[in-house]
Structures are given as structure tokens and as C-alpha cells.
Amino acid sequence: MRAGQNPALIVVRCNLLATTRGFMSFVILQVIVGGLLLGAVYALFSSGLTLVWGMMNVVNFAHGDFVMLGMYVAYLVYTLLGAGPLIGAPMAMLVLATVGIIVYFALIREVMKGPMLAQILGTFGLALLLRYSVFWWFGANFLTLPENIIGGTLDLGGIRIPASRLLAGIVALAVTFGLHLLLTRTSLGSKMLAVAEDSTAAQLMGIRPDTMQAIAWAIAAGATGLAGALIATFFYIVPTVGETLAIVAFVTVSLGGFGSVPGALVAGLLIGVIESLSGYLIGAVYKDIVVYALFVSFLWFRPQGLLGKS
Amino acid sequence: MNFRTMFALSCAAAISFALVSQASAEDKAVKIGVIFPMTGNAASAGIHGKAGLEVALDIINNAHPELGSFPLAKNAGLAGLGGAKLELVFADNQGSPATGQNQALRLITEEKVVALTGAYQSGITLTTSAIAEKYGIPFVNGESVASNLTERGFKWFFRTTPIATDFAKVYYDFLTDMKASGAKTDSIALVHDNTEYGKSVADTITTAFKEKGVAIALDVAYASNATDVQSQVLQLKEKKPDVVLMISYTSDAILFAKTFQAQDYKPPMLIADDAGYSDPSFIKAVGKISQGAFNRSSWSVGPAGSATAIIAKMYKEKSGDEMDDTVARQMTGLFVLAEAIDRAGSTDPAKIQAALKATDLKPDQLMIGYKGVKFDDKGQNILASGVIIQLQDGENYTTVWPKANAEKPPVMPYKGW
User: Are the C-beta atoms of A52 and A122 separated by less than 8 Å?
Assistant: First the structure.
């Protein structure tokens, strides 16, 4: 950077230097970085939900349990093959994509013919079925992957970034970008959108709604499985973990704007940073209050979400 | 009549016959309701508790002369009731106070249990015991530590475990001793969730320490089942307390251990208030990065061949896990209840209540390190006590305090990973 070219940047730089001297503001920087990484994870496990809820208009209450299944796949890959997330994550993606297709044909296709309530109860039932099947098979014990499965923590001048979270963050960006390209730049994406908008009209145009919906479910569940496998590298694994995570996914998608993949990313990052900052500055018990108060008041002004179409 | 109708009818007949014969076999059994979190985030604790109570049931219902002076072990069943067997009816509280309450109601009115035990989480013991009180059914709790449970003037609630006030004193004495041996213990931080358990234990410790002239330097509260605890860890890292006291259930305890490592934070001394840190799955998951954590306990396995060692072995065979303090306290609760029913010689709730009030068990009649069991007017065991243990190798807890009970001296500072 040449001096004098951009005074604003220099000021920012000076501020950064100054803050490293004061521990208090230095911690704030760490809190923000941590919040961004957390937010990227939120965005990552919300991307699948954006697709089925935001676009296909199906509320999938089993979404959190798809994340949970992805975590268990990563765990199995580790215990059976001794392999890390490099194999576990693609495996989780494949397994969950298959689960997504099965779930679509066995359940979703049928309940979509019924009223909204049938969807809600159907996917909620699925959530419980998945949760307690895993519960029965693996038991209620808390499991974890070894701490060093993704090489430790990076230390950038005192700012600590766990490699596992950084990887999750990078994958979150890649998945968001990939999904966005798929939906806006490919004919497959246009077909999926067409089916979502008017399945009868799409059928008249020679698009098979069933196939498109199934593909959407495979992609959504696959992305969710991938997210689960990556989250498993720094979170505990337990059959009920989906419950803990799912609510954030729903908030992220509705804040981001239904059907907007980039919106979910922005919303995820925003929620992560607000949670971290309010948790640090006000107190952890209040952070959910802050997040949800802002969320509700934001939707009051802009019900379509951050980047959703009005 | 075609084949299908025949088949269906014979099935129905077989089922009703089975039900009838089961009912007549149960006429003699003494039914006790057990409310545990069998699903939900605390299911790990509930499932271990269930295995523990089933071992206790085996000891009570079958002859176990190898256990010596242990009450109810020598002969099969309850001698005071003509050898009647005990039957446990398990119910799932799903980690919710409201569900627990419904289950208590169901156990009392439909299953006709003569007494209740459980319900692990203090907040759920609070609601379930209120139902027992209303129906006049004895409730013996072996594991919930929130002080207020025995401050409600209940007549049917009995608690065998040491409670928050007992442990506040243990922590204070322990810290005083550690200070005398050169450790810095001036600033203390409490980290706790916002459940009945977390709040009440934190409050009790704060009050007890204040009475001794020690102020708690930092109080870090968080919502239970957190998705992220980084900001709390950074708060600790910034304030640098000498002692961090963790009051957390398993899920959050694991997340804290992982975040401590990610943020490279090691408090000089970490004391855990049982709960999550005693869960075997905590030790398996993050024990190796929590080396040197102190914890409270009333359980000690004892020398080989002792009654406690035999019971620990039975439990390991049943559950596949090592006996932990929580399970031992839960089993003790059931033993105390069964001993009272045996002594009452009746399943009449009022007679069981009277027998519980007259309970006077000596240390050698217990599987746990209490000085005995004797209830005060509030139903609290006044002889409950405990020791401090330490996770020195990241795999097994060792008793380190008080000196009289210590297997090894305490190791400082907290090692972590």
C-alpha cells in the first residue's frame, strides 16, 4: 500500500496496531474472528435448508438430524477406517445425499400432496425416527473425534484460529458459492427453480418434477451431511445434537431470505458475530435474547429477510 | 371362521393370558417408580443411572452373601415383606420438568408405585417430587444437589446426597489447604449454566464463600446446551482467575474443554462440580485434554474384594463403563429406600415414610463414602459428605483430599493437554 493513497485504510491499520496494545480491544478482535468462524459454520449447516425450505417450500424439521447423521458418518469413518474428515466429509456427503433421495421418494413426495400440517408432522416424525435409531444403535454417550484430527490451531499474532473451524469456514464459502452458481448459472438450477415455482407448468415444459425435487433433496442433504462431518471435528457428537443446532439453521435461513443462498451466508456470519459479541460484552445468558430480539425486529421491517425477494 | 380370524383370536387370547399371568406375578412385587432422563441431552446420565439401579435391584432381589453386612444383600428379596421382590418401573423425563411431572403422575396413578426415586436434573426433581408430595408418596432422591429441594417443607421428600452447601464447605476447606501449601487461590471464577442446578449451586457457593469473607471474582453464566462458548472462555482468559469452578452438564462441559484447548487457556486450578465432569463419556471424549481437573465425589472403589469393589465390577459388566460418583449416589438412594420399605414391613406409603424418618445407616452399610444416612426434619441426609478427586492421567479420577482419604497428593497446576 502506497502512503497517502487511501487515508481511511491507513487509519484502520493504525487502529489495529493500537488495539494490539490494549488487551481488552485485542480480545474484542478475537471475539469477532471467533464469531465469524462460528457464523460460517451456521451458514454451512443452513445451506441445505435454504434449498429445501427456501426453494422447494418444504419445512424440513429433520434438518438438524441430517447434520447429526453426517457427524456420525464422520465418526464411523474415523473409528472403522482411521481416516479423518478428508474421507469422512465426502463420505458423509454421499451417504446423506442417498438418504435425501430415499427420504424424498419415501416420505416427502407423499406428504407434499397433503396439507402443510402433514409436511410438518411428517418431517418431525422423520427427525424423531432418525434421532432414536441412532440413539438405539450408538447409545446416548457423547462421542468426539480426536483433537488433532485437523492440525491444531493457527496463531496469527495472538489471534487464535482453530484449523478445524477455518476449514469449516472455507468449505462454507465454497458450498455457498457452488450452490449459488448451480441455481443461477446452470440449466439444472433453472429447472429446479421452475419446478419450485410451478410444478405443473414445469411439467408441461418437459421437466420432470419428481427428478428435480429428488436432485434438490440429494444436494441439500448432501451439503448438510458435509456440514455435519466438518462440525464433528470440533463439536461433540450425540443423538440429540440436531436439536441444539437446528434452531439456528431455521433462524439463519429466514434472516437471510428464503431461497437466497448468499443471504444464508451473510445471515450466518451476522448471527455468529452478534452472538459472540453480545456473549462477551453483555453475558452469555443474554446472547440468545439479543440475537432473537434483533432477528424478530429485523423481520418486522423486512419480512423477506436480508437478501430475499420481496 | 377363516384362518385369519382364528389366528387373530388365538393371538389375542395368548396376549391376554400373558398379561394376566404377569399381573398375578406382580401382585407380590413392590413397585418403585424411577424417573430419569432416558432421552434428550442428559440421556447419557439417565442410561448409566438405569444400569446402576438394575445392579442394585439384582443385589436386593437375589442372594449376594459376598457383600457382607450390606443391607438386603444376604437374602433374596425383602425379608420384611416375606421375601417380596422389588420391581422398578422406569420413566423418561426427556430432560423436561413438565414431562417429568407427567411421568410422576402416571407412575403414581396408573402404575400404582409405592415410592419414587430420580429424577437426575435438580429442576426436574423439583417438579416430580411436588407430585409425590401431593399424592402422599415417598420420594427418595439420591443425586440432585440444588439446596432448595429440601427447603420446601415437604413431608414426603428425602434426599441422601450431600448438597450444594456441603460441597461449598468442602471446596472452601480444600482451597484453604491448597493455599496453605502454596497455591494461589485468591480470585475465584464460577462458570455455570442457567438451569436449576447451575444457578442454585453457584448461588450457594457464592453465599457460603462470602460468609467466610471471600468474594467470587467472576461469575460466568451461560445458557445450557450452548452451541459455542468462546466468548465465555475469552472472558476467563482476560480476567485470569486463580481458580475456575465449573458447574456444567456433560454437553457444555465437553464444549468448554474443547474451547479451552482451542483458545490455549489453562486456569491454574480447575475444580468441577461433579455433573458433566463425572460422566464417563466426558472422560472418554475430552479427559485427555482435561488432565488435572479436580472434581468432587463421594464414591471410591475401595480395595479388591470389598463390597464396593464387587458392586463396581457388577456395574462395569452391566453397563460397560466404570462406576462414577453420580451412579453410586443414585444407587445409594435406592438402597436407602428399599431398606426403609423392608424395615417398614409394608407397602403402605405412610409406613414407608415413617421408616424413612427413622433411617439410621452406618458407613459400613453403605456403598458410598458418607458418614451414614440419617434424615433431618427437612428430609436431608445430615451425614452426607464427600472428597475431592483429581483426573491426573486424563483417564481415571484419584482421591486427593482430605489427606486421610487421599490415594495420591493433589498435583498443581492444571495440566490440560
Answer: no
